[in-house]
Amino acid sequence: MKLTPWILGLFLLLGACGYQEGVVWRAEQSYLNFTGNWANASVQIDGTQPFVLKPKNATDSSPFPTNTLYQLSPGKHRITVTRDGRVVVDRVVVLDNHATMEVQVP
Question: Where are the alpha helices (DSSP H) in 1-106?
């Protein structure tokens, strides 16, 4: 009779120590960071529609310039940067998962 509360308490204690199993996957994403003389340069990635890197607006509250960090999927990408009709960067890059690659614009 005296052993029953101890056994019950032991089972409750062991039952409270649950074991959870699982895997957390982070989304696959990589970034290109444009540095250097990037103002008003046109960027084309993998033959898509080009976009222009613009300096920060006076009304923008972000401490970083606009459009200098661009999110891509990991893998092989072709980066073409043009300014005033001339190609200044034409490079093929391989991006790792959760990595940021710097693209220096001369």
Answer: 3-16
